Amino acid sequence: MKIALQFAMPSELHALPGARELAPLETVSGVPIFEIAPDILACAGGVSKVNAAMAAELLCLRYGVDLILNAGVAGCFTDLPTGTLVVASEFVQHDVDTTAVGDPIGLVSTVNQVAFPTWQPERCAELLASLGYPAVTGRVSTGDWFAVKGQRAEWIRVPSPPC
Residue 115: which residues within 8 A CB-CB, separation 6 or more? Predict the structure, then answer.
């Protein structure tokens, strides 16, 4: 199985042990592709969903990866130490806003959903802990707005009630 780690920024990728010394296999459309280990690639595709989609397509079409793991730095609204591994209990897309047509904030209209639950997050955290990688579970959000505080940040932080 060929796996790819997809980072947004080179500094995130270079935080991997030994990655700073690696030369890219190639750079395509500004995206450097690295071989971290046999059958494990990594790239720094750039910030934004458009860049993430472009890098994912590159990894699939040019390198034939079977699995892409999104990795890297994320902001946090709770007091967790840097480097904490978080297993998502649900996902939200915080910068989707079609409220002007009557939708709730964050609604992804193609699937008519705001929050996306994940598969057994507590079980995944237990498995990681048994392998020596302690993790916490929590809501994970994606978007192109860097949230800090305020009502919008509070909405991102607090899980929605079940439907």
Answer: 90, 91, 92, 106, 139, 159, 160
Sign of CA dihedral 17, 21, 26, 32: positive
Sign of CA dihedral 106, 147, 15, 27: positive
Mean pLDDT lowest among 23-27, 58-62, 147-151: 147-151
Pair 116, 92: CB distance under 8 Å: yes
Other Cβ atoms closer than 10 A to 49: 12
Instruction: Tell me: pLDDT of 38 over 70.
Output: yes
Exposed, middle or buried by CB within 10 Å (0-12, 13-18, 19+), for 154?
exposed
Nearest CA to 109 out of 99, 123, 121 is that of: 99
Q: What are phi and psi of 141, to 5 degrees?
A: -125, 145
β-bridge partners, 101? none
Closest residue by Cα to residue 22 from 51, 43, 7, 4: 43
